[in-house]
Amino acid sequence: MNRELKRVSAVILIMFVALLCSTTTISALQVDNLRADSRNVRTLYDSYSAERGPILVAGKPIAESKPVDDQYKFQRVYTEPELYAAITGYFTLNQGTSGVEGALNDYLSGTANDQFLAKVNAILTGQTPKGAAVELTIDPAVQKAAWDALGSNQGAVVAIDPKTGAILAMVSKPSYDPNRLASHTTVNVISAYNKLLDDPKNPLFNRAISGDLYHPGSVFKLIVASAAIDSGEFTADSTFPNPSTLKLPLSDSVITNSNDGQCGAGKEVSIANALRLSCNIPFAELGKALGEETLRKYTTLYGFGADLAIPMDVTPSSIPGSLDVPQLMLSSFGQANVQVTPLQMAMVSAGIGNGGVVMKPTLIRTITAPDLTVIQPFQPEVFSNPISPQTSATLTQLMVNNVNNGAASNGRISGVDVAGKTGTAQNGEGRPYTLWFTGFAPANDPQIAVAVVVENGTSFGNAVAAPIARKVIEAVLNK
């Protein structure tokens, strides 16, 4: 009998320990995951119990909570809503959150672990609990210049400080008004949200970091050229045959340069001139000679496939795996199934301009508690070192040549050396192009790296995207 009691007692003890471990794991170790779970409506309602912290640009709120006479006490209000919607995102009662509002919800609502004592103290002293303030790295003049320059085009602009990774501007068009989603009337919010979802132009996409991504076209040649030169197997003066057409191996497909002719005069063309004139055939030949393994190494170093948060999650840029020779050759001038975000291409330019060092991009300058204690200061962080300083210097000069005397001529700014590259990506027979410009300035001491993408283009990157980038660059240089 005693033996049976011992067995039962042991089983009960084991069950009790298991229950204790389970509840401890849930209540302590999994607290952040549970709080972030979109199905946890208690977290959402709890975030309304405190005055939500503001989102600031240059010290001024672009999103803040104002008192209202209803059960939620405060309502979110967005200043210049469409200008900043891709960054702030929205904060709703029943359709979730996005942007900085979603990624930093625990800080803004005052529920982050390192704000727990402050929240308890506010309750005990009878004060209204408040969330932390989030100061962005955005420069309002650069953001406005990017918005205005993009105009009625559909696409995105990203501008980065190459030395720190601070994002100076992030614009995505078409945009939307997050105030319409901040209503406390459920039927109004759902109606507005459904209209945005049904819009074929997808205004809820942040095209700068997510969405369907883009074929990079000729801006991808920067990665191929830097990989070739940095590998030590080639120099800027290495040459390749210069035909006007090239039949891909194992295929009936024929590729051409953008002018349907040779890449300049002569039977051979250098990497430098092929980049300056943005020719496809020499880069297809270069990619084949370079090999998939080397190309993939450098795309990874630049950030392809990386999990990145700024703090919003960034959709990884990608290049297909197990490329056959034709796919490798097409990928080497940014076609086939290569897919990128504008942020990724801005990182490539920023890394080239910053001596071969890519800094981790971020939108967050500081997070400050209501008592003005800095919870999270801005600390520049190295993301990767894809190329050497020597390769960086070579690529910089090649990109300056692109602007001064090449296919990126509309990026010129009087008195300033601009390093740039254009792109005109094909999206299928009879479909509009994707137009690009990416670059940095001043070339010898970059203050800004920029990437511009324009959808549904009928012209070339130099005609449409380059002038947009020039205006964004000027907004930094003229300050």
Automatic annotation (TrEMBL):
Pfam families listed in its UniProt record: PBP_dimer_2, Transpeptidase
Every Penicillin binding protein A dimerisation domain range: 52-134
Taxonomic source organism: Terrimesophilobacter mesophilus
Domain called Penicillin-binding protein transpeptidase: residue spans: 155-474
Protein name: Penicillin-binding protein 2
Gene Ontology biological process terms from the UniProt entry: cell wall organization
GO MF: penicillin binding; peptidoglycan L,D-transpeptidase activity
UniProt xrefs under InterPro entries: Beta-lactam/transpept, Beta-lactam/transpept-like, PBP_dimer_sf, PBPA_dimer, PCN-bd_Tpept
GO cellular component: plasma membrane
